[in-house]
């Protein structure tokens, strides 16, 4: 899958931050099952504490693991936030990853994705990393691999960021070729359910939570057409059970058109960023940092206890929530508004789940316990609620038949009005 004639170094995404690093890149030669014959490199920063998160960073065609390490910001971000970075290396002529074969598109089917899953398990075992905080990001061929890993290994990865890729299964071939021209040229269009069914078929019987997805694409990309961004949005909104109507549309910086689906916060279920006038490259730095924020890793240590709260006056809140449900699961997007006259510096929102519902993941808040009477606590970026201000949080859950909305919302102990 050679991207002939394309400068593969995705410029803005791949600008390394200055400054010496306290650790060094190390090759791991024995990491378990390796049907793809990949090489594995890892970066373990001095800042990694007990049970550190893991980010798998996947290179472009003609690239290598060491080149992606030296040419991206992931290592410097790992120094800052204490996560381990794994750099797979394609180790074949052309240095592209297999995202096309039937083996690659099936859970534990063999080929490169199975090798990368082995790398993750090795890091968890050897370094005591947190298996519940494993993420993946990739560029070009690595972006396509990101989507493949999210589809085939939802039990391993919690979220991913794809920079100039294609939907899961779009590059599939059956003739041994690694290149799919129709997909590359943006000529493959399917319904959301058809795209979603491709993902669900990769791991038959899997009923657990699905990873969140961040998608980036240049609008004038002539290598992997920009149409693939819209098709990927169809796919992942269907897989995650959220509406294709954006919750938020904005321009986080000039030249970036961002839409969020299912929730408006930083850890939305699906986020898409389109870049007008940009081809198969990305123009500015800081994009890796945006991916790390999307993963929720942009804090040196995850919160271990709730922050102090300022009680709200009685009846000083309003809650609106939207449930999107499918056969055994649901997402609930909740907007909380402080209708009081005093700012809240730290807050908790309590509510009761319907019988048979169990939270499997959440965004923009911590949720505990996962069933029954639940308390959602703010995270660092949304802890302050001025009078009249709102914040959006949400969760994904499984259910046994009752997919109804939670009841009994209370903000800092005060009953909330329905919005």
UniProtKB/TrEMBL annotation:
Span of the signal peptide: 1-22
Limits of the CBM2 domain: 310-419
Name the record gives this protein: PHB depolymerase family esterase
One Pfam family named in its UniProt record: CBM_2
Stored PROSITE patterns: CBM2
Organism: Streptomyces chilikensis
Superkingdom in the source lineage: Bacteria
InterPro entries given in the database record: AB_hydrolase_fold, CBD2, CBM2/CBM3_carb-bd_dom_sf, CBM2_carb-bd_dom_sf, Esterase_phb, Plant_Biomass_Hydrol_Est
Upper classification of the organism: Bacteria, Bacillati, Actinomycetota, Actinomycetes, Kitasatosporales
Keyword annotations from UniProtKB, A to Z: Carbohydrate metabolism, Hydrolase, Polysaccharide degradation, Signal
């Amino acid at each position: 899958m050679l991207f002939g004639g394309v400068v593969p170094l995705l410029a803005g995404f791949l600008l390394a931050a200055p400054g010496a690093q306290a650790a060094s890149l190390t090759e791991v030669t024995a990491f378990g099952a390796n049907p793809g014959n990949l090489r594995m490199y890892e970066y373990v920063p001095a800042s990694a504490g007990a049970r550190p998160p893991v980010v798998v960073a996947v290179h472009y065609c003609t690239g290598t693991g060491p080149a992606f390490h030296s040419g991206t910001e992931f290592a410097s971000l790992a120094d800052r936030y204490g996560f381990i970075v794994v750099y797979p290396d394609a180790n074949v002529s052309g240095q592209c990853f297999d995202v096309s074969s039937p083996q690659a598109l099936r859970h534990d089917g063999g080929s490169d994705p199975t090798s990368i899953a082995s790398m993750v398990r090795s890091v968890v075992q050897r370094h005591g990393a947190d298996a519940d905080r494993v993420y993946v990001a990739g560029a070009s061929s690595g972006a396509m691999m990101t989507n493949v890993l999210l589809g085939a290994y939802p039990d391993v990865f919690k979220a991913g960021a794809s920079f100039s890729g294609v939907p899961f299964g779009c590059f599939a071939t059956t003739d041994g070729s690694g290149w799919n021209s129709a997909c590359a040229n943006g000529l493959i269009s399917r319904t959301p359910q058809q795209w979603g069914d491709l993902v669900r078929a990769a791991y038959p019987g899997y009923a657990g939570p699905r990873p969140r997805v961040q998608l980036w694409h240049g609008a004038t990309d002539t290598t992997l057409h920009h149409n693939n961004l819209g098709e990927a949005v169809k796919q992942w909104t269907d897989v995650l059970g959220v509406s294709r109507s954006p919750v938020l549309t904005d321009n986080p910086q000039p030249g970036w058109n961002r839409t969020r689906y299912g929730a408006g916060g930083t850890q939305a279920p699906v986020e898409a960023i389109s870049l007008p006038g940009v081809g198969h490259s990305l123009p500015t730095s800081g994009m890796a940092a945006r991916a790390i924020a999307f993963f929720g890793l942009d804090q040196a240590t995850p919160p271990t206890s709730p922050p102090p709260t300022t009680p709200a006056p009685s009846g000083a809140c309003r809650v609106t929530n939207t449930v999107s449900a499918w056969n055994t699961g649901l997402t609930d997007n909740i907007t909380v508004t402080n209708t009081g006259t005093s700012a809240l510096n730290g807050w908790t929102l309590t509510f009761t789940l319907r019988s048979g519902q169990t939270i499997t993941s959440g965004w923009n808040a911590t949720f505990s316990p996962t069933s029954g009477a639940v308390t959602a606590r703010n995270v660092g970026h949304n802890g302050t609620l001025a009078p009249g201000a709102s914040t959006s949080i949400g969760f994904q859950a499984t259910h046994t038949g009752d997919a109804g909305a939670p009841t009994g919302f209370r903000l800092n102990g005060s009953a909330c009005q329905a919005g």
